[in-house]
Design goal:
Shape: elongated
Number of domains: 1
Helix content: over 70%
Structural class: mainly alpha
CATH architecture: Up-down Bundle
CATH class: Mainly Alpha
Largest sheet: none
Number of helices: 6
CATH topology: Four Helix Bundle (Hemerythrin (Met), subunit A)
Length: 128
């Protein structure tokens, strides 16, 4: 057994690792409201700016995609699932836009608003 294995099996190492992970989760939770607000802003811009609709929805998609992955990594499965559903919806919508150029005709704002709301509602409390 190497020294590294000895260190990793010590209770102090486990406690230190738990503290680092707790700190990272806390930082992530503190940043979540800003990310969610940014995503909502892009969706709202898309609603009011048909010329840049594709661009704004792409930005919202990027955030949803990142949230789906990072939330899962931090153990926030409900948020990861909600963001993943929005990610898939926007991915399909934007793919259709790239193929047909008709995103403005295909978007269901009620569905998208529901997905945004689901993401916002699934943000865990900061005490998590």
């Amino acid at each position: 057994m190497s020294n590294k294995d000895d260190i990793e099996n010590e209770p102090e190492y486990d406690a230190a690792l738990d503290e680092v992970l707790k700190s990272l989760r806390g930082e992530y939770l503190n940043e979540l409201p800003d990310r969610i607000d940014e995503m909502k802003d892009f969706v709202n811009k898309a609603k009011s700016d048909e010329v840049k609709l594709y661009e704004w929805l792409t930005e919202a998609h990027i955030i949803a995609h990142r949230l789906a992955g990072t939330a899962g990594s931090y153990g926030f499965t409900e948020l990861s699932h909600a963001a993943g559903e929005m990610d898939q919806y926007l991915k399909n919508l934007l793919k259709n836009e790239a193929d047909t150029g008709s995103v403005a005709n295909r978007i269901n704002w009620q569905t998208l608003d529901g997905l945004v709301e689901a993401v916002g509602n699934s943000v865990p409390p900061k005490t998590a």
